[in-house]
Amino acid sequence: MDRHPLVEQIEIRWGERQTVAELLRVERRALRIDVKPTGEVAIFAPAGENLDEIQRRAQRKAPWIFAQLDAISRRPNATPQRRFVSGESHLLLGRQYRLSIEQSDDPHVWLDGGRLVIGARCIKDQPHCRRLLQAFYVLRAREVFRQRFDIVSEPFLRKGLNRPPVIIRKMAKRWGSFTPGGRVVLNIDLVRASPRLIDYVICHELAHAFYPDHGEGWRTLLGTVMPDWEKRKTQLEETLR
Q: Facing residues of 96 across strands?
């Protein structure tokens, strides 16, 4: 994401409905609108673009914005907050594992069949268990994301894209981004999703190397590379809410 953007708000109406979007002035050429899985709407607009023009263009997208908001409202409730105790269910690469916390003088995490085992010095130390599991997810993310990137990036490289660096880090509200500097950033938590959904996020961001917004060009390119991308997008948002 662009650093330190100026944040404003803009109201979008459709019939009797209205929502308030966060407007961010950033260094980019085209306007981009995102509806996040939380239901928040963000508009990324060129720094010097006139506010009335932004309002007009955002208003044209109102039917799409409210369709996305309606789809979000129909999804299952978000996963309850994890407490990191034995018996909880945790995801890894799209598979559910039953968490088992065991005492160990050598703290680490491993898979044992259908169990995700945390070996901890104190099994009741929830922050410690959380850190151990997060470190395990980071290691798996580094391995899996780069493997999947190598597999799905080929069509974009053939179109002339120079292989971009892949950055893996914790992100608060996004599964990935393509930065103005030409880097692909992927959220560590995406390692909880199945490989086919990870592939969708990577392709989504690589398509932004050619088209910075979610307009017709971007949709055509992504649809050519991944015809079922919209289905995968919905599955991702339902799985990792």
A: 91
Sole residue written with tokens 């950055």? 167
Separation in Å, CA 3 to CA 71, 100, 146, 173, 180: 30, 40, 25, 15, 10
Whether 148 has a pLDDT exceeding 60, the answer reads yes
Residue 158's Cβ-side half-sphere holds a number of Cα atoms within 13 Å equal to 8
* Helix (H), strand (E) at residue 187: strand 184-187
Assess contact for 164 and 209: CB atoms under 8 A: yes
Domain with CATH 3.30.2010.10 in the chain: 146-239
**Residue 65 pLDDT > 90, yes or no?**
yes
pLDDT in tens, 76-100: 555 556 677 889 999 999 999 999 9
**8 A C-beta contact, residue 135 and residue 162:** no
Residue 112, SS3 per DSSP: strand
Residue 29 Cα distances to 49, 158, 211, 213, 241, angstroms: 10, 24, 10, 9, 31
For the CA atoms of 11, 13, 18, 20, the dihedral, rounded to the nearest 10 degrees, stands at -20
Token reading at 38: 């939380």
Q: Which two tokens stand for residue 94?
A: 């799209």
- Main-chain dihedrals φ then ψ at residue 108, nearest 5 degrees: -170, 175
Quote the tokens at residue 21. 């979007």
Residue range 41-68: mean pLDDT, rounded? 90
Three-state SS at 193: coil
Q: Spelled out in words, what is the top-level CATH class assigned to the domain 146-239?
A: alpha beta
pLDDT of residue 26: 78
